[in-house]
Amino acid sequence: MVVRTSSSPSATASGPGEAPAKALALLREAAPLTQCITNAVVTNFTANALLALGAAPAMCDIPGEAGMFAGIAGGVLVNLGTPTAEQRHAAREAVAAGTPWVLDPVAVGALPVRTALAHELLDARPAIIRGNASEILALAGAGAGGRGVDATDSADDAVDAARALAARTGGTVAVSGETDLIVDATRTARVPGGSVLLTKVTGGGCALGAAMAAFATVSEPFDAAIAASAVWAVASERAASGARGPGSFAVAFLDELARVQPADLDGRVEIAR
């Protein structure tokens, strides 16, 4: 059975039928402080995406400050794209603060430093794990990873791995792909759509992880992951419609993130029961 979410004003902030529309309205009202320990390649794009969405980004990744800052932030992203020694220490501090946090296990599998750290951080029980199918398979011990940051598997290939990780952490796992897959211990959702141009812009996926961290400040993890994926699908499709290529798309995508309204998200999510 597939249930499409509704943007009814009576939707609550929790439960399997929460509308992404409600989550976006709550986020815009709260403007949540979102800490990002993320990779050097995507810092600027991620911060701008959060600002456009309506959140307040903070790229605080210095040991000695990261844990302290995580204690006052609403949500935290830990992205393993460029895990320097300092960032690894900062990540350990931040996830110990007890703030809802998102793990983005970039390129885990073949690369030993980030892979070991990702497995270590799983014990801190991320609220959400967001990655492509190859990363999720590798993190679950069911694959060797993709081609660098690029997936060589589909989201449907990673269903069992995602469920295993959700069971281990007690959280939500979001698998990015042509149709995004979001699972927790008992629920499955799919968010179709979005533009392939997101794969041609550095930071499209990494910024999605940050958006999930922002949404996790106003919604429970399963709903937060759904809402972020729905917003990304709508904004990327609209940006692509007038883009001449990846450069103009990147600029238009930030504009469209700011323009997305709660009602625009109606009917974007399929929740299987």
UniProtKB/TrEMBL annotation:
Substrate binds at residues 59, 203. The keyword Aminoacyl-tRNA synthetase does not apply. One of its GO terms (molecular function) is ATP binding. InterPro entries: Hyethyz_kinase, Ribokinase-like. Pathway: Cofactor biosynthesis; thiamine diphosphate biosynthesis; 4-methyl-5-(2-phosphoethyl)-thiazole from 5-(2-hydroxyethyl)-4-methylthiazole: step 1/1. Its EC number is 2.7.1.50. SUPFAM superfamilies: Ribokinase-like. The keyword Coiled coil does not apply. It catalyses: 5-(2-hydroxyethyl)-4-methylthiazole + ATP = 4-methyl-5-(2-phosphooxyethyl)-thiazole + ADP + H(+). GO terms for biological process: thiamine biosynthetic process; thiamine diphosphate biosynthetic process. ATP binds at residues 130, 176. Its cofactor is Mg(2+). Keywords: ATP-binding, Kinase, Magnesium, Metal-binding, Nucleotide-binding, Thiamine biosynthesis, Transferase. Belongs to the Thz kinase family. Catalyzes the phosphorylation of the hydroxyl group of 4-methyl-5-beta-hydroxyethylthiazole (THZ). This is Hydroxyethylthiazole kinase.
